[in-house]
Hints:
With 372 residues, the chain is mostly helical.
Amino acid sequence: MSNLEKNKGLAGIDVGETAISTVGKQGVGLSYRGYLIDELAEMSSFEEVSYLLINACLPTQSELVAYKQRLFNKRLIPDQLKNILQALPKNSHPMDVLRTAVSALGCLEPESDRRTQFDIAERLIALVPMCLLYWYQYHRGIIVDDLPDTNSIAELILSVLNNNEVSSAQQKALDQSLILYAEHEFNASTFAARVSASTLTDFYSSITAAIGTLKGPLHGGANEATMALLNRFTSVKQAEEGIKNILNNREKVMGFGHRVYKDSDPRSDIIKKTANVLADMVNDQHYIPVSEVIEKTMWAEKKLFPNLDFYSATAYYFLGIPVSFYTPLFVCSRLAGWSAHIIEQRSDNRLIRPNAVYTGVGIRPFIPLTER
């Protein structure tokens, strides 16, 4: 196998430097700005983590209070953007809705100066979840105007989505998920954002490029596919036999394995524990047992481990989140990581322009139109 074939898709190729996160390097599974993901998921909030990623340090108590207040103030949707969201069809793909919302906001509130990039990052983190919820509820006959008085993005999402009070356990569960999805080095969508940023385009264009890339099923969407898989089985026995048949038919099982991690995904155990807590709250007797037998079978048959997406599916299900929202919530979280990478790319920029190996025909004479 040639080096080109071995490294196809840039697998194993270092294409840049970052101080934002480590993925499977330096003897740790995953860290953000030097902090282990386990500790961040257990002891911090998504707001703390998004501040850390964008500002390169954990906030003090007063800085966190001020940051949360800024996000609180920046979550209101402009009337012109509401009109656009209302005009988008009910059957639009939610990822298309978010991509359109960000692009439209770039017209309504353009980036006039590089010094506003931190403000734009905060605006997007605060506003994008609200755009998703506004569009969704509008087509159900509900106008989202009276927002709950909370400075927690996780609580806000669940409260507006399900129109009920959110327990501390539910808020913590979604908060953890947002933390786990917030950043992951040079994944496809982040790299797309950095390539875009390297051209010196505006902030919104880079985010739009990232959302479009995440929409692809080989990047985002694995948690949605996992839910579809779980719903194919009515019992643990059927799940075990069904997975074996799927593998024998050489079908891909989404939610397992990872391009970078070789032995396990450090985020998976965290979200699995969270999913189990939520399962106990709703007295689940199906999804966790089925998920666990699939996990066991995948390891026994293929030595493949679950990644973050696999147990995220059941966690989101227990939180009452529609399946079509699974990948859009990925966007709401990863906005923090994308923003950090755009800012980092701009700080020491060089246009990203790799080479390609030409495999077409050799040079040949041009044939006039009348002789073809």
